[in-house]
Fold this protein.
Amino acid sequence: MREKAIDDMSSASTNHDLASLEAVISDAGVVDALRSTSPTSFTAASEFWRTVMEGEHLSARMKELLLLAMHASAAALHVEALERHIDRARRAGASDEDIVDVLISIVGLANHALYSSVPILEEELQAAGIDEPVRFDAEFEAAKEEFIAARGFWNPDRDGLARLMPGYFRALNNITTESWKNGTLSAKEREFICIGIDCTVAHEYQPGLRLHIRNALGHGATREEILEIFQLAALFGLEGYVLAARALQAPAARE
């Protein structure tokens, strides 16, 4: 009920047009420069942004939290867009607690690289005759059970981390369950965040994407909601246009 109430409120709570590309650029002079340089291009870009942002299956609040996650993730770290979507998420009804929930939920993305790096190290250790037998203690089993209780799944790629880096594994386990135990987003919303960061052009982590789609569907997500997440990820294609807009205006302003 809380999720629906927030989403209903957020859809009507802002006077700002979050579906407007002009609002994203937020500088009338820059918008005028883009229009005068190539009016048809500006029209096409505006239509692309508006079509995605006016999708009917995700709330404005959820769309902005997803865009925040995508731009704030370790695979992107787009500072200007990060600040933009924090502001827009607030205007769409998101709380600061929601925003922090998102930022903690996406920390684990950077750990994905270890799932391929650690096995390579293990293979090379074995080839060099430095391999050690697998040892999992009661603490590992307890941490694994805690993770499954919070997240509903277990990735066996974490076994190597626990074996070779037990201290890191404990810290990782703690931060990747923190928002799931104490955050303000619903489980479905947080699965949406995970889908968002795993489907972007900057990351495309297919094992995680498949897992989080499955989990989201289990929490009641629809095909249409997930397709809207994919479309939001495709808005990355407009970021170069938006970022370059001021630079294009600059020479004209000096003349």
In short: Residues 110-183 form one domain. Confidence is low (pLDDT under 50) at residues 8-15. The CA atoms of residues 65 and 89 lie 6 Å apart. The chain has two domains: 1-95+185-255, 110-183.
